[in-house]
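DATA SHEET
Item: assembly model
Revision: 1
Owner: S.N.
Input lines:
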Amino acid sequence: MASSIRVRATANGDITEVQALIQHPMDTGFVKDAKGELIPAHFIQQLKFECNGKDVFVADWGTAVSKDPYVKFSFKGAKKGDDLKVSWTDNKGGSDTTTAKIS
Amino acid sequence: MTSLTGPSATRRLILQGAASVALLGLGNLPFGAAPARAAANDKYPEEAFKQKSEADAIKALYGKTAEPSDKVKLDAPEIAENGGVVPISVTTTLDKVTSISFFVAENPNALAASYRIPDGTIPGVANRLKMAKTTNVVAIVEADGKLYSATKEVKVTVGGCGG
């Protein structure tokens, strides 16, 4: 199965810019489905980026993050060809991991 | 994976049984160690995400209050046509930033997202949040142990004809 995570990391000098897009419903638990039943909350709680054995960015999310979340940040200390590991876990125990090469 | 015959299904069950016995036999050490380490540093702030009001959420997350600062730049649209996807970003010129958090004042739970910024990471983040209605978006930057905030009202078009 294709990964739920799409990530692009681009090094520009010392600074690496990271953009990530994750496929996830991010249900709030407040929305009803077509039958009028509440859709239970289902959302990513933690998203982590690791590079060279170090956490470079950790996101704690609630239900107010949009469906199919997007996040962008930059960090120093990596170079082209380094691996960036991205992983998330949700409130139902689901998770996914992917590794991207910094270009 | 269309046909599973009886004998092979039985064999798989037996193997599964054997595997779980093996796991039990290994003892608790490797499983016990992982959550303890996670709790020290990477704990998900469950309580803060449950708070209804913005003030309570800030207190639960940081245990102190924030002061407004012009060094925190919050970028959000004046009007959001779709409250489900509001692009919001924050940058700051402050030093020693350790975390950045986003609050939406009148959402059912005010805390939307909290980002930890380790050493070497640029203190700035862009994301997309949901907003229930027109209200203030507050960004809080934790720098050198102090909290700084920026606030902006975003109008949400309810009913969302979108032009």
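QC remark: The domain at 5-101 of chain A is CATH 2.60.40.10 (Immunoglobulin-like).
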